Give the backbone structure.
Amino acid sequence: MNTESRASNVVATRYWHKLDNGEIQCDLCPRACKLKEGQRGLCFVRECRDDAIVMTSYGRSSGFCIDPIEKKPLNHFLPGSPVLSFGTAGCNLACKFCQNWDMSKAREMDILADQASPEKIARVAEELNCRSVAYTYNDPVIFHEYAIDVAQACHEKGIKSVAVTAGYVCEEPRVEFYKYMDAANVDLKAFTEEFYWKLTGAHLQPVLDTLEYIKHQTDVWLEITTLLIPGKNDSDKEIDELTRWVVEHLGPDVPLHFSAFHPDWKMLDVPPTPSATLTRARKIAMDNGVFYAFTGNVHDEQGESTYCHQCGEKLIGRDWYVLTEWNLDEQSCCKKCGASCVGVFEKRPGTWGARRMPVQLKSYA
């Protein structure tokens, strides 16, 4: 479809059904919001209108920025390359520790957001030499239709699509969505149902289902991030169980990022994560067989770098978001021992570095 011609930000959706009591149930995510005429789901951007569910924020973004791909974080997907990042208002989770709450929770942002058609996003990404576009800041699950249209427009220009997501989505829309994605970083927020329910208002199992689906039934490159929160999900026992599950159900070559919590939103009374906690989690993961375990949100060159799982050679050195070493051959193998390093690599890494460049789409034709 030619989305340039869409004059309205309201578009029809497919994932819903009518209940016997006349309410409409949204079937996009496991939250299954049941809505009466005029009501919006928890995500805020999907509304019951004329006995159907519509998306009300198509083509409106909360802002654009060129980031290093490592910031998503994706360490084994086109390293060193620039990615055009954007999100929208709203979210289908209710994380008390949300670090993008000003975007995901601010209803005013939906009104003030920039207009951006899929074709224009693709054109600007191409003009700015971005290798990929990332759907991030809030969760692309809730702007499913918009993200897919952007991905299709980008693919026509050879630009990849990256989903940064909590993975909280129902089966049918999940299948459709990942047909158009090239890489995903999924937040595995914890490994207990209690954490998910009390701190995010969601459930663990649908996220695990998404991880297994992406890994085993798609060609999408997958990495995982777990934000470690002191006293909530950072025990040795939970980290051990989480990492064992990853190795058993996804395999040892899925990169796993442990990132530091900073007090925010409704958890201002919880202290920041000590860097030692991230180092401990990384060691547990590697002891359990994870090939590529990383620390994030702290300065830790060793924890940020990629090492050969066979001989221990540093393959990709990282200092924050700057690549400092590259010891992969043209077949993405360790130059020292020849072991393969799994990922989506080009013959030479990018040189974007740590730059973060805000972009005003209205400045482009």
In short: The chain is about 25% helix and 20% strand.
